[in-house]
Amino acid sequence: MTAATDQRKPDRHEQAVGLPGWVWVPAALAFLLIVAPVAGLLLKADWARMPELLLSDEALSALRLSLETAAMSTVLCILLGGPLAVVLARSRLRGLRFLRSIVLLPLVLPPVVGGLALLYLLGRTGLVGRGLDLAFGITIPFTTAAVVISQTFVALPFLVVALEGALRTAGRRYEAVAATLGASPALAFRRVTVPLVLPGLASGSVLAFARCMGEFGATITFAGSLQGTTRTLPLLVYQARETDADGAVAISLLLVVVAVVVIILGRPRGSEGLT
Amino acid sequence: MKRLVTGAVAGLAVVLAAACSAPSQSASTGGGSEAPTAAPQSRTLTVLAAASLTESFNSLEKTFEQQNPGVDVKLSYGGSSDLAQQIVNGAPVDVFAAASDATMKTVTDANATASAPSIFATNVLQIATAPGNPKGIASFADLAKPEYKVVVCAPQVPCGAAEVKIEQATKIDVKPVSEETDVKSVLSKVSTGNADAGLVYVTDVNAAKGTVQGVNFPEAAQARTNYPIAVVKNAPQADLAQKWIDLVKGATGTQVLSAQGFGKPAA
């Protein structure tokens, strides 16, 4: 993108040219489609009962669980996804293009399918889960670990894609210079590559964290739903909506607030890292 | 700004309305070899029913369509509370069959039924275990033992409410590993072997056709659930809706329902 715009000379007249008028109509509709439902939530909210609804035992334990699991999953995403992004961006492996498209799978798959896949791999009768149960007596479904695994599964591509983009934009020039100055690959990676892509890593982590906070389908399929153990905020919304619409709206707004905070934190760096 | 917003909302509504009505039009003009004599007007009866009614209503659908040529019965199953929400929020539906009086009450309270609901069946809980019951789970009290992984419905849905009722009556505190939002999710946790036992309806065990085994327990009778049915207010096909209810409550319906394990309504 940047290369294409660099080739052109800056054109002063460009700014004076307006947009075709019709563009505004679908653009406004698109914007409304995003904003109006959230506005609907705000209108539906029972503000007088809001503190009581948000400070209920159920809501607080779900919030704590959501924050804890999303934080753990984000750390896992960085630890596992970071190196994966480096391999995708820098290595000369054969079939790298194929690998890269596989990594995108959780991004494209419906999370329910991811949850089902995890259940048949790690569930008590699953491929790996059966062995874990027989050998160590470990069962993963219905535990907080299952929530973290679900979230890591769905959020991993967000981190990998953001970081790989940052690595490619940064290029290899500085690393090459470091190498000519006698730095080993490990030293060059630590002192040159990592600081260069730190903004990309940060924005990728924020995106991954946001995805973890919102995870629903894989969690409910693979981990189940129990207060304090597996019932995260989205699961609580889904359940509260059955009987307590006000409660569901209140928790939904809490998630909207989290989302807005994430956008504010992640956006400036995000545009840097992703372009 | 406000004018822009209302204009855009109106525009959106038009687009959505067009999108929603398109399929039915294309469906009626679809077949190229359409004979003008066949099916002068095809009508669609929309029935929302609790998930536990899936097998029974699927079989009644065939009977109804044979008895009423040109009528297509569209069945939609789900958690009762979910379906009730859809109806209260104005889904264009003809009949609602719920899995508890409480859920039907949310609809009648919202003034969204055309007539008073009537009970057409009852159901009781049963313990579902793996086929052959390898863990030897024999009673409701067994479910409170910590060595078993037990899955139940969340208290907000009818099957969960029934379970809570039994817990209160027996003073047995079941510690589930998960509270699912509908009965079929409980069943799948058991049939996939991830839970040792689950509390589901006796009809769900029958419908699972051997992938789980049912264990009766006497306390279940203390939480018998009623299945009410009603014509929805402003039903597009109110006359057909009443016909459907007559079929469900008539001899054929009773036979199909009891074959699935449903009980007869208390007289």
From TrEMBL, chain A:
Topology versus the membrane: Multi-pass membrane protein
Keyword match Transport: yes
Compartments, as annotated in UniProt: Cell membrane
Keyword Transport attached: yes
Residues annotated as domain ABC transmembrane type-1: 63-266
Transmembrane portions of the chain: 21-43, 70-89, 101-122, 134-163, 248-266
Keywords tagged on the record: Cell membrane, Membrane, Molybdenum, Transmembrane, Transmembrane helix, Transport
Family that this chain belongs to: Belongs to the binding-protein-dependent transport system permease family. CysTW subfamily.
Function: Part of the binding-protein-dependent transport system for molybdenum; probably responsible for the translocation of the substrate across the membrane.
Protein's recorded name: Molybdenum transport system permease
Organism field: Pseudonocardia ailaonensis
TrEMBL record, chain B:
Annotated keywords: Metal-binding, Signal
SUPFAM superfamilies (UniProt xref): Periplasmic binding protein-like II
Any Pfam family hit: SBP_bac_11
Signal peptide as annotated in the record: 1-26
Source taxon at top rank: Bacteria
Xref: PROSITE patterns: PROKAR_LIPOPROTEIN (PS51257)
Entry-linked NCBIfam families: modA
The protein, known as: Molybdate ABC transporter substrate-binding protein
Native source organism of the sequence: Pseudonocardia ailaonensis
Taxonomic lineage: Bacteria, Bacillati, Actinomycetota, Actinomycetes, Pseudonocardiales
